[in-house]
Amino acid sequence: ARDKAQGRVWLITGASSGFGRSIAEAALAAGDTVVATARRPEALDALVAAHPDRAVAVQLDVTDTARIADVVADTVLWYGRIDVLVNNAGMGLVGAVEETTDRELRDLMDLHFFGPAALVRAVLPHMRRNGSGAVVQMSSMGGRFTFPGVGGYSATKFALEGLSEALAAEVAPHGIKVLIVEPGSFRTGFAGGGALRQSAPLDAYADSVGPVRSGLPESDGKQEGDPAKAAAAILTALAAEDTPLRL
Ligand code: NDP
């Protein structure tokens, strides 16, 4: 067992890049303890080396639901509890509905829906025991509305949002918060953004965002947002007394 955890204990998926990495960095900067997971934990070596007492990198493919129980059990064994689960791992998928294969849809549902659902199931008993906790669900503006070329991607995020909305009501009496994050376009390793720019003008995307812009500090004009600023906004929202359901 490691030393007793400092600050809150975060379990983050897809922490090797983009939002996941920025959230891990922000949590560490706040003095918290982070179990940073990804399929490529070696990409987290430098982050862990900078905070050897408060950070650990763990291999986790969230579509490997059998492994999820082990990672959750290890986290609780090492640090005694889990305060924040961040279901962040994800990827883009662009294509017409007619051309999107059954395999692609099932794989993306595994990544954006079944994996996060399994993590929630595994983590909640520990949070309920503590009478506190937070689940951050990285959705997308595409989880709120959709447009041509992103039907498959949106469907997986709609599924995650439906689950999360009910979850929020179920766990609120136990002192557990659920925060659904709906980014627009951010500068990360995200495959969807690049492919989207090739397949459809970003202008059309920006126009379709309309009145449901998220509460994240997004881009101004057509520039993509900074994931570090989004991470800071997520930490602020979690710390608030009245954390919103959606950010
Ligand atoms: P990145 O590609 O930069 O990061 C994705 C992360 O997910 C990587 O750390 C990757 O690490 C991990 N990952 C991918 N597949 C798996 C898997 N099967 N199991 C575990 N980890 C996996 O993209 P973003 O940071 O942008 O994406 C994070 C989330 O944000 C996603 O859910 C995405 O849908 C959402 N989002 C992003 C937007 C953007 O504009 N960037 C807009 C809206 C939503 P590794 O390869 O090591 O496993």
Shape: globular
| β-strand amount | 5-15%
The total count of helices amounts to 8
Give a short account of the largest sheet. 6 strands, parallel
Given this structure, which CATH class is correct?
Alpha Beta
Q: Tell me roughly what share of residues is in helical segments.
A: 40-55%
Organism: Streptomyces drozdowiczii
Pfam families: adh_short (PF00106)
Family: Belongs to the short-chain dehydrogenases/reductases (SDR) family.
Keywords: Oxidoreductase
Describe the overall structure.
The protein has 247 residues and is an alpha/beta fold. It has one domain: Rossmann fold (3-Layer(aba) Sandwich), CATH 3.40.50. 46% of the residues lie in helices and 13% in strands. α1 packs across α8, α3 runs parallel beside α4 and α4 runs parallel beside α5. It is globular, with a radius of gyration of 17 Å. The chain starts with 8 loop residues before the first strand and ends in an 8-residue tail after the last helix. The relative contact order is 0.14. NADPH dihydro-nicotinamide-adenine-dinucleotide phosphate binds next to α1. It comes from Streptomyces drozdowiczii.
